[in-house]
Amino acid sequence: MTARLRAEGITLGYDGRTIVDDLHLDVPDAAITAIVGPNACGKSTLVRGLGRLLKPSAGRVMLDGRDLNQIAPREVARTIAVLPQQPVAPDGVTVADLVSRGRHPHQGWFRSRSSDDDRIVADALAATATLGLADRRVEELSGGQRQRVWIAMVLAQRSDIVLLDEPTTFLDATHQLELLDLLTDLNRDRGATIVMVLHDLNLAARYADHLVVMSAGRIVTSGSPTKVLTASTISDAFDLDSVVTVDPVAGTPLIVPIGRHHRSAPGA
Amino acid sequence: MTTPVIGDGPGTTDAASIVAEGRHRRRRRAVTVTAVLAALIVVAVVVSLSLGATGLGLGDALAALVGRGDRLSDFVVFRLRLPRATTAVLAGAAFGLAGSLFQSTLRNPLASPDILGVTAGASFAAVFATLILRVDGPGIAVAAFAGALIVAALMWALAWRGGLVGYRFVLIGVALAALVQAALGYLITRADVRDASRALVWTVGGIGDTSWPAIGVVGVAILGLLIVVAGVSRRMPVLQLDDDSARSLGVDAGRARAGVIVLGVALVAAGTALAGPVAFVALVSAPIARSLVRGGASALAASALVGSLVVLVADLVGQYALPGGISVPVGIVTGLIGAPYLLWLIATGNRKGSDG
Fold first, then answer.
1. GO biological process: what's one of them (chain B) (predicted)?
2. Are A123 and B11 a contacting pair at CB < 8 A?
3. Which residue in A11, A127, A260, B331 is a FRET match for B226, CA 20 to 30 A apart?
4. In what order do the strands lie in the sheet with A161-165?
């Protein structure tokens, strides 16, 4: 397994408050990595550190053997795209206009918009089924449509590595699956490296090649979902009792959580 | 999302032409709006040259402009009316552009330099320089820049929390504006009566008594700033996004926003040095320009032109269109237009729950 993007003992936090402490992580190339963990365990913070949105106070993030924070921001942006948890579009902007802003890292003083950019933007719109919305205003769209538009902007950036912070939040079940299928296409067809924070353990188990389980700012365990997702891991990380069985559709681990009520089935 | 196609699938040429067509349409609209605004400014300038106590017809004014006027019309046009119109165009453009830079960069329609106390800082410093330091000419412009910059820096320091939160910036700015206004009032009441009336222009904004040398100095500064703004305008579409999205697209959001704000501060200072704090021009110009251009662009050029047009027309109204034949400084007229707009903005602004 090779890893262009690596975290080497990074410590991340805000205003002197440490969220992620001395963390090591190799992000496998051309694979889908899902980061899971309980609320406030540092998942989003880790993604922000990996994407150069937040500078580590100790350790370093390496991209292709270079310290990420020593590389020019625009150069990083041509290799890594980040979709934040709650991106904000300017008032009145149209879908095509917003998506074409994803081309910014590729445009310079002497290289402004070209027909290449139009083609790439059109590709991104087509891939996310938002071509028909091209001239609509972003604020008029539904939550699912809007999230697809933001994904389209990330696609238009044409980066090898894509980091997404809870891309399925605010989406219903159908749109969650559509989005994860789309990211899988991106990974399989283009060999993109994808890292995403997910809340739904079962979707993470199904769609990830590599699973990173976090708790309290550290990585509890990582590896293929089948190996990693055991009842004891889930108990350690989430403080949650569960039964792990097999997803009848994908064959991946299926986590059935156990609460205080409704435990009538035999074996529970 | 039926059959996602990633990569160069069939039909992407058609799709690309849809994208290109949309882009051309946006561009055409921006160019048309800009051209129409520029034409309206020319019309307003010519009208302003032909109005006034000395009965000069449109023909006389035009003749003087092209160097064929008699001595009277030359004097009236070049000494009295053209400086006034030029001041209106320059100061209006400076305020309009500064407002657009502030509002786009801070992603808040309320975050304009006149609401945030930056303009007040410039006018306070200008009054201070006039009354206490007894400087004149370019010195006033320098003082105005320093005053505006100090207010902006204070605001930045107080509002910064590892990033800029739009509404926080506005609240701190409003408080600072009140503080600076109070200090300005104190300065004026303390001053000698004649001095105070001379300094009054810095409190309301007026364009009646500017001279060519002053216009020349500030005009060159404004033109220089316009060139720098044209240079950074490429980044504005990205700075209109949130900090994380901007960084993800390779723009260091914090530093880039600070740079744009400094440019806006310089423009406010230049405009204030020339015409005083003409109320609300910075606040209203960009929203008008953006609604004309449409499509969520920051519409920098159109904002500058709308600013010019607003000041020109407001000055004409203040001079000639008020009942009873009285004439008032331009800042009072723009205040009358701007205040209701501000009320409307506050009344409708947070309905969506967004701060941009």
1. siderophore-iron import into cell
2. no
3. B331
4. A80-83, A161-165, A193-197, A32-36, A210-215, A218-223
